[in-house]
């Protein structure tokens, strides 16, 4: 009976693509509406440099899982990321010993074990920053050890795309149980996965959704060009877009869903992709990190050369630094990194070939990068956002508890909603 039904999917990111792929292979008519002039959403592969660079999502986290199968089927190049392979420079651009880094990481792991017992006994939530300070106070360590410890904090903020002051410790550790496995960097063109999933689908690009209406027997999706009618709709809009109320719902969303949208936060991570005339850095480690207050939230560099052999470094600013980046021109960004890299490698010639940067905070179709849960927000809040509302279903990385902020989470949510429609 469902083969006579029609489903509209709002958004051609990985969640929408997964839902469309799953429904279409079962013979159900699908129509995908996308406001951008491309598919992929927050997966954005740029081929203009002659090799693929990822301006958005770059990793398969916590593999193996179902999304990895699509990557393997396309024979995309991947490589495991080793977070222990780090070259770190202190506030004066002096190299920090690996022994010191491992020592502080060991101390941090012990502090985490103690903090879990504390969280289980406490009724009130606490920020991740306050929790760390409670069980690992900075003033107990030498200045050099504090510098090494700041690397751990910066790594956590980088993964969360938010300040540790804003992260719920209880919700953070509630989702940690699902974060086992390997992290694979995809550097063979992540966007091809979305393109393959949407192959043969009725796709409408440059189609901005304005309103979603529903009645007892059908739904209408009003766009800038026309109105589409179907039996069900799957909304895969990012949290930032839902918060902006750019898309109206003719029937008001339930209070609990509105509260979930208000409570969750969309963090910001941007990328500064820098190609040089030649590789001037001496390390083959996965990451180069600059520490100190001046580099806070902006000092982590992914060594792309370790994966591709290309003389490319990718800066990963997050939170305030990522937002500030969007107000700067490319020349100013390049000069900043020219100076920083010259201090770390003073005897090397540093010549940029080209540079580009993402700007996810100001992108009207994303308004942020990915979701985190602030202090006081329960771990199950994404599930409230995922709850269907009549003939309107919701997918995306913000709607899944254990895998929010990941491409796999977005993919799984799309399959979940396709299956939900099959059961309605």
Number of DSSP helices? 14
Strand order of the largest sheet: 7-17-18-19-16-20
Structural class: alpha/beta
Largest beta-sheet characterization = 6 strands, mixed
Q: Radius of gyration over alpha carbons? A: 22 Å
N- to C-terminal separation?
Answer: 11 Å
The global form is: globular
Point out poorly predicted stretches.
none
Q: What's the multimeric state?
A: single chain
Beta strands, count: 22
Average pLDDT works out at 92
Query: How much of the sequence is in beta strands?
Result: 15-25%
Helical content band = 25-40%
What are the defining features of this structure?
five-stranded parallel beta sheet, alpha/beta, 14 helices, 424 residues, single chain
Plain-language structure description:
With 424 residues, the chain is an alpha/beta fold. Helices cover 35% and strands 21% of the residues. It has 14 helices and 22 strands. It has helices spanning 14-24, 66-73, 98-121, 128-135, 143-160, 169-176, 191-197, 239-244, 255-263, 305-308, 319-325, 330-344, 381-386, 407-423, and strands spanning 6-10, 29-33, 45-46, 53-54, 59-63, 78-80, 86-89, 182-186, 202-204, 209-214, 219-223, 227-230, 232-235, 248-249, 265-267, 272-276, 287-290, 300-303, 312-315, 352-357, 370-372, 392-394. The strands form 6 sheets. The chain has a 6-stranded mixed sheet. Strand 3 (45-46) and strand 4 (53-54) form a beta hairpin. It is globular, with a radius of gyration of 22 Å. 42% of the residues are buried.
């Amino acid at each position: 009976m469902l083969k006579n039904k029609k489903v509209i999917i709002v958004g051609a990111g990985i969640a929408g693509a997964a839902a469309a792929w799953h429904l279409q292979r079962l013979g159900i008519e699908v129509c995908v509406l996308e406001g951008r002039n491309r598919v992929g959403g927050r997966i954005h592969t740029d081929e203009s440099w002659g090799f693929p660079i990822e301006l958005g999502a770059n990793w398969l986290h916590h593999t193996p899982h179902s999304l990895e199968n699509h990557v393997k089927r396309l024979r995309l190049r991947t490589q495991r990321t080793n977070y222990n392979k780090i070259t770190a420079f202190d506030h004066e651009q002096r190299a920090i010993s690996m022994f010191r880094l491992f020592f502080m990481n060991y101390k941090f792991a012990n502090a985490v074990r103690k903090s879990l017992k504390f969280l289980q006994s406490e009724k009130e939530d606490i920020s991740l920053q306050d929790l760390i300070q409670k069980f690992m106070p900075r003033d107990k360590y030498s200045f050099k050890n504090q510098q090494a410890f700041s690397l751990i904090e910066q790594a956590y903020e980088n993964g969360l795309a938010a300040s540790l002051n804003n992260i719920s410790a209880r919700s953070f550790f509630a989702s940690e149980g699902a974060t086992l496995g390997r992290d694979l960097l995809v550097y063979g063109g992540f966007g091809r996965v979305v393109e393959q999933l949407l192959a043969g689908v009725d796709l409408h690009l440059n189609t901005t959704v304005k309103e979603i209406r529903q009645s007892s027997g059908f739904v209408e999706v009003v766009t800038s060009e026309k109105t589409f009618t179907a039996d069900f709709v799957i909304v895969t809009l990012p949290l930032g877009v839902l918060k902006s109320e750019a898309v109206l719902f003719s029937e008001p969303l339930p209070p609990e869903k509105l509260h979930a949208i208000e409570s969750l936060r969309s963090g910001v991570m941007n990328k500064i992709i820098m190609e040089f005339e030649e590789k001037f850095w001496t390390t083959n480690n996965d990451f180069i990190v600059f520490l100190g207050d001046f580099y806070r939230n902006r000092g982590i560099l992914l060594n792309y050369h370790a994966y591709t052999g290309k003389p490319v470094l990718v800066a990963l600013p997050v939170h305030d630094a990522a937002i500030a980046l969007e107000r700067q021109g490319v020349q100013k960004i390049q000069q900043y990194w020219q100076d920083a890299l010259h201090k770390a490698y003073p005897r090397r010639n540093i010549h940029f070939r080209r540079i580009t940067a993402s700007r996810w905070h100001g992108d009207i179709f994303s308004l942020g990068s990915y979701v985190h849960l602030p202090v006081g927000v329960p771990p199950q809040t994404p599930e409230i956002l995922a709850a269907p509302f009549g003939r309107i279903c919701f997918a995306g990385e913000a709607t899944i508890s254990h895998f929010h902020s990941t491409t796999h989470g977005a993919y799984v949510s799309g399959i979940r909603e396709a299956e939900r429609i099959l059961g309605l």
